[in-house]
């Protein structure tokens, strides 16, 4: 089973065409949060997946819980908190590129304690960590303790998904990512994230350095330009897929879900003497990356983080 660790919230979208000075701004809400999207994406690919997060006992928390359950995400490890639900307001520009404003100080997804992560993970093969939950305390340190406990025992995955409007101190992000890097096996990062984290360094140099620290597979997403994948054996570039973009919300999470699905398939396909990472040659990397790019393009073609099913991805391939 996959276990996804990170925030679950509501994305609140502004109407597409509203004058800046308007007194009334119509809003529509959709369940979201990068880790929640990854969990839903894995479920839609037919993967057994659960979430370990904090959810409010308010009516929004109830809706989040019900939506996860309706998607087939296991919610047994979710911890209910008498605290608010995070709201992430989203406004898109003419190209569909989102900007965010988060309202979540003291919210349930930021309040996980060490006691909350003392859980039985028997049968869990992959643990994924992502987004502002890796830096928002006390949840951040609780997740870090979980990563320390399970590194080397299960596959660990990381998507920093930097949100400076949640934690504006870039040094906090850099420090936690540096601590996590030796513990994780798979990393997905966007070119935007790397520019925020290390504006004076080339992405390739950063990733080459990360590869020396522990990860076996690193994916760099470049928006419409596609993606690049690195292993210790090879590096490949994947072209973008032309699509009419409605918006890009959830595209990176779709790529992440597809990537993790492929990694687990790889572990199942190896014989008893092989190690999954030894199979990451250029052909395998291209296949993994191409599938993930196609999946992300499907999400970009529809409103909100509406991630594709396995059947939809296979049809697009």
Main sheet summary: 8 strands, mixed
Uncertain stretches of 5 or more adjacent residues: none
Going by CATH, the architecture would be 3-Layer(aba) Sandwich
Mean pLDDT: 92
- Oligomerization status of the protein chains: single chain
Task: Enumerate how many helices there are, as a single number.
Answer: 9
- Strands of the widest sheet, in order across it, are 4-1-9-10-11-12-13-14
Backbone CA Rg: 18 Å
Distance linking N and C termini: 26 Å
The top-level CATH class is Alpha Beta
Helix/strand order: EEEHEEHEEEEHEHEHHEEEHHH
Strand content: 15-25%
Structural class: alpha/beta
- The amount of helix comes to 25-40%
CATH homologous superfamily, by name?
Answer: Ribokinase
Number of domains: 1
CATH topology: UDP-N-acetylmuramoyl-L-alanine:D-glutamate ligase
Shape: globular
Organism: Thiothrix eikelboomii
Family: Belongs to the carbohydrate kinase PfkB family.
Keywords: ATP-binding, Kinase, Nucleotide-binding, Transferase
GO molecular function, one term: kinase activity
Structure summarized in a few sentences:
Helices cover about 35% and strands about 20% of the residues.
Protein architecture, described:
This protein has 317 residues and is α/β, with parallel strands linked by helices. It has a single domain, classed as UDP-N-acetylmuramoyl-L-alanine:D-glutamate ligase (3-Layer(aba) Sandwich), CATH 3.40.1190.20. The chain has nine helices and 14 strands. The chain has an eight-stranded mixed β-sheet, sandwiched between helices. A hairpin with a 4-residue loop joins strand 13 and strand 14. Helix 1 crosses helix 7 and helix 7 runs antiparallel to helix 8.
